[in-house]
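[Automated response] Your request has been received and processed.

Submitted sequence:
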Amino acid sequence: PWPQPLRGHIHLQPQVLPGQDFLLDDAGRHRWQPISPRARIELDFNAPSLRWQGEAYLDANRGTRPLERDFSAWSWSRSALNGQRSRLLYELQTCDGGERVLALDIDAEGHVEARPPPPRWALPATGWGLPRSSRAEQPPELLATLESGPFYSRSLLRDRVDGRLTVHESLSLRRFSQPWVQAMLPFRMPRWTVGRST
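Generated structure:
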């Protein structure tokens, strides 16, 4: 229950590198890049004593001003498909009531194919009352809530058509901007700097 520093090493090896980023708003202030939608990761920690390896994903957002000034919420998801392919969905709601949806398939060579966004389905709200939704051909099954907070959740979904697993995130920037949430951040997500791991 008490936050403690982590010590160890994380090694990420990209397997697919599309080399493409995407504009998230009409004004050109925000961009998103799926750096490596398929990667391998190895963790070797000595505090706590933990070691494992598995599949990973790496992306990045960048912009010229805070996200909460232009967006009220977003949903994101990533599914691993056969043949080292990935399916990504990024849905944003802007502060002025607009929306933007990116529905992408990325193959093993990094080629990106945009596809029509599937229908949106509501998911059960989190314990914090955070609304969630995702896009799929059929309503996805919520298997687990992996992380839950006042403005963010990460969930594991299963597709009812083919059974594939999807990692899903919901973010409410409207909630994030609330004074009561800002007051919680130093306790929920402390940013301590300790000596460098060796």
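Summary generated for your ticket: Helices lie at 173-176, 179-188. The first strand starts at residue 7 and ends at 14.
If you did not submit this request, please reply to this message.
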